[in-house]
Amino acid sequence: MSDNQKVLYTGKTHTTGGRDGASRSSDGRLDVKLSTPGSAGHGTNPEQLFAAGWSACFIGAMGFAAKSLNAVLPADLAVDTEVDLCSNTGGYALQARLNVSLPGVEHETARAIVDAAHQTCPYSKATRGNINVTINLV
User: Which Pfam families match (predicted)?
Assistant: First the structure.
């Protein structure tokens, strides 16, 4: 982390049991059971949590992008994020697809919003160059 960064918020969790455990935030707002993808467990998994966080953050980044482009985002916009857990010769890896719906927004404007959001969203920045990411306008 750079010395000149101003911390705006710190999310804190305590996790036990790994993929078959539980995770709770320090403020108690998040309290989830975890289970391995595809198992009979009743909890969520890290890939779903990552997808939810990235989707929410990306929508916020689209809001900033739309303002800078003097565009208005539709109230019914949505981001459906898919995070794949993959195996390869080096072990495990992630890949992701963000399927963005901006009903009523001209395709060229929607593409500009999505491209700008992908440059500023912290999740997009964290994954850039590290995992395969596809952003689709649907």
Answer: OsmC
- Alpha helices, DSSP H only, in the chain? 46-68, 107-120, 122-127
Closest C-alpha among 25, 31, 133 to residue 79: 133
54 closest CA partner among 131, 130, 129, 118: 118
Domains of the chain by start residue, with CATH: 1-44 (2.20.25.10), 46-137 (3.30.300.20)
* Cα within 13 Å of Cα(2), Cβ side: 3
| Interval 36-88: pLDDT, tens | 998 998 999 999 999 999 999 999 999 999 999 999 999 999 999 999 999 98
